[in-house]
Specification:
The longest helix has 23 residues. The chain is globular, with a radius of gyration of 23 Å. The chain is of the alpha/beta class. The protein starts with a strand and ends in an 18-residue tail after the last helix. The chain has 2 domains: 145 residues, Urease, subunit C, domain 1, CATH 2.30.40.10; 328 residues, TIM Barrel (Alpha-Beta Barrel). Strands 2, 3, 4, 6, 7, 16, 17 and 18 form an 8-stranded mixed sheet that branches. Strand 12, helix 7 and strand 13 form a beta-alpha-beta unit. Helix 1 packs antiparallel against helix 3 and helix 6 runs parallel beside helix 7. It is built from 19 helices and 18 strands. The model has no long low-confidence stretch (mean pLDDT 93). Bound molecules: zinc ion. The site of zinc ion has 6 residues, from loops.
């Protein structure tokens, strides 16, 4: 029998029913006292089927109680007393999943566009892959509650060698001393990890890895071409972005192609040449998959705890002719200066002839298969989009990424776990990624079952971010505000240089 409880009684009830809180390392009595003293909002999502991000079964008819920015209780709705004054979100006929993480994002400092688009699409956390002053400011505003947005895990500036494809926002590191100094700068800037890049010399990379280890700072990024991937993994590289080098490492051309790359200089006058060669060798290698080489590679990655971040969303775009996405309806959310840059730069990467386009289609399918093989071999996968690169959109494109993860063979449950539970595990965040007492109140309420069809992630009724409830009307307002802000920026007065090294994904 459900009884009406006042707020104080309800919080006390949570403490007696709070075994889950204790298990999560939260003292229930203290939790209730603090919540009562702080006057934290109480929100009850009731009647939904909870898909909690673990391997457990979906639980229909559940209730989830949020107190402040935490989940306080999860259980059968029938067992929960009513709480006077609580906000009730009707979850009947709906599906509640953990907030999603885009694990490869850029551009959060488009403060009036990117954060609302992430939230409107259920993305309550991002790993921002290039740090600079503007997005450090945005990160801090969100953390202080001055700006509504997803949680931001922020990279250092990109560390690359003296020769680089990238522009002046990149830190070019040529010596061991500079490498150690760059890591210390990253720490001073409160970076969550160091981002490494293609053209780092061997000794510089080793020094970055060593300095990171000394300071217990993770590092992640692109395959540094001069280092074998398993050596980079052994040195501590936590993730490899975009699948660069994975086709070569798992092919029967492995030694031949790595030898060719070893013999090729980074040309300061034509820095793209090496990248283009490596990309073409990857494409060829993808058609020469070698199960034995792959097994060794995957075992090495797993042993060293290195994950793969395939970023299918951006890889799909660069596999298509440059004009293919010019009329994507989501372009209305993108400032003119960014659309102009996209149109200008994509031809550097996109196939130019029908033959090349056909080759790239085959290559993209191979990338899906490779990720599936890696997953089945036990390698951790991340779900990231590379938004802000051409025609990759904040929030929206993570839904596309989920489609691709399913197409890679993960299935809907594992795909969803990849961008929730697994993302949190990768980041070492015990407070995120699943729906359980003590976890952050980051949730998405869907109108359809994502385990039946992952496309249900697009059918969003409500998003909860750090305990704040955004219902459908609020989400539509966010979308409208983002669109208006993108249009306002059409005037040159608001334009700024886009901090995006569009050359092949940053
Ligand atoms: Zn990137």
């Amino acid at each position: 029998m459900r009884v009406e409880a006042n707020r104080r009684e309800f919080l006390r009830w949570l403490t007696t029913a709070g075994a889950g809180l204790a298990a999560a390392g939260v003292a229930p009595a203290l939790f209730a006292q603090e919540a009562a003293a702080a006057g934290s909002d109480v929100v009850v999502v009731t009647g939904a089927t909870v898909v909690d991000g673990t391997d457990g079964p979906a639980r229909p008819g559940s209730a989830v109680v949020l107190v402040g920015d935490r989940i306080a209780w999860v259980g059968p709705a029938a067992e929960l007393p009513r709480c006077a004054g609580a906000r009730v979100v009707d979850g009947r006929g709906r599906f509640l999943v953990p907030g999603l993480w885009d694990m490869h994002a850029h551009g959060i400092d488009y403060e009036d566009i990117w954060p609302p688009l992430f939230l409107a699409n259920g993305v309550t956390g991002i790993r921002e892959m290039q740090g600079y002053e503007e997005n450090r400011v945005t990160r801090d505003k969100i953390a202080r509650g001055e700006l509504l947005g997803p949680r931001v895990v922020l990279a250092s500036t990109i560390l690359d060698g003296p020769v680089s494809l990238l522009g002046p926002s990149t830190t070019r590191v040529g010596t061991v001393a500079e490498a150690r100094a760059a890591v210390r700068t990253a720490i001073a800037q409160r970076s969550d990890f160091v981002k490494v890049y293609f053209y780092l010399p061997r000794d510089v990379f080793a020094a970055i890895a060593d300095e990171c280890r000394r300071h217990r700072l993770p590092f992640a990024g692109h395959w540094p071409y001069r280092i074998r991937q398993l050596d980079a993994a052994r040195a501590g590289q936590r993730s490899f972005e975009h699948s660069f080098g994975l086709p070569i490492a798992t092919s029967r051309y492995r030694d031949e192609f790595l030898g060719r790359l070893d013999a090729e200089p980074f040309d300061p006058k034509a820095p793209r040449d090496f990248f283009n060669l490596a990309r073409e060798l990857d494409r060829q290698a993808a058609q020469a998959y070698d199960p034995a080489a792959a097994a060794r590679h995957f075992a090495g990655l797993t042993a060293h705890g290195s994950w793969l971040s395939p970023t299918f969303a951006v890889n799909r775009v660069i596999s298509k002719p440059a004009g293919a996405f010019a009329h994507d309806p989501r372009n209305k959310y993108v400032p003119r200066e960014v659309l102009d840059l996209w149109a200008d730069r994509l031809p550097l990467l996109a196939p130019a002839t029908p033959e090349q386009a056909a080759q790239q289609d085959v290559y993209f399918e191979a990338q899906l298969r490779l990720a599936g093989e890696a997953h089945r071999a036990g390698v951790g996968l991340l779900g990231g989009t590379d938004c802000l690169n051409p025609y990759v959109y904040p929030g929206f494109s993570l839904h596309d990424e989920l489609d691709f993860l399913v197409a890679a063979g993960l299935g809907p449950r594992k795909a969803l776990q990849t961008v929730t539970r697994d993302a949190a595990a990768f980041l070492g965040r015990a407070d995120a990624g699943t729906i359980a007492p003590g976890k952050a109140a980051d949730l998405v309420l869907l109108d359809a079952d994502p385990l039946a069809d992952i496309r249900a992630v697009r059918r969003i009724d409500t998003v909860v971010t750090a305990g704040r409830v955004l219902d459908r009307a609020a989400l539509d307002k966010l979308l409208a505000a983002a669109e208006a802000a993108a249009n306002r920026r059409a005037g040159a007065a608001n334009a700024r240089s886009v901090r995006l090294p569009v050359h092949g994904c940053c």
